[in-house]
Amino acid sequence: MGGKEVNALILAAGKGTRMKSDKAKVLHEVLAVPMVHHVIDAVIPLNPARIVLVVGHQHEAVRAALAGYVVSLVMQQEQLGTGHAVLAARDLLSGRNSQVLILCGDTPLIRTETLRAMLEAHGKSGATLTLMTTELDDPTGYGRVLKGPDGAVQGIVEEKDATEAQRRIREINAGIYLVEAGFLFAALDQVGTDNAQGEVYLTDIVGIAANTGVLVRTFHCANPEETMGVNSPIELAMANARMQARRGQQPS
Questions:
Q1: Which residues does the annotation mark as catalytic?
Q2: What pLDDT, in 10s, does the model give residues 65-83?
Q3: Dihedral (C-alpha) 183, 187, 188, 189: value to the nearest 10 degrees?
């Protein structure tokens, strides 16, 4: 991928309570394989130095489902937020001259081509942090991207912490980041839990970067379906249908 070493970090520890199942969320299947397989398969062609998964709920089952992949697993003992999950991988990823590509294990529709374009844009911009965004007609449930009058990123506000005005913002955080490892872990050490969830939000690093003069860029994903998180049986059915349609469009 040129330049600095890039490591991929996939967050896969969630329970997925809205799935109404005790199975780990990332093991629910899209086209007959665990959805996290699709995320890993999108990352592999980028040739990351290492692929790390943060696991928690049903971690033994997740480990078994990943037997065919060359990946490293780390445990998130308690579910204390996305930032806390990333910190679980600090020992594996805190090399000074490396970047971390952070994804969620419940976004099976993300494409390699989109991730590659984001990596290229990050390298050209000289940014310390690039976050993927997209626009939704109905952004309910997603973190909103806050920008100043000049278009500069100011931060991300989660739905439960957003004002009415902020909830009208249609540009949302897709939950995919490329960030310099040194800044990532230094910033997470500054993140508190003073929010509606009482969790360590990974998204808070965006505001920390903006407030300290660290260059932040957004990468716009033109197709919102690629960033769709699968959190319910309905969304799982949608992901299956969209992946099936995508496969049907590919030349045989």
A1: 18
A2: 999 999 999 999 888 899 9
A3: 110
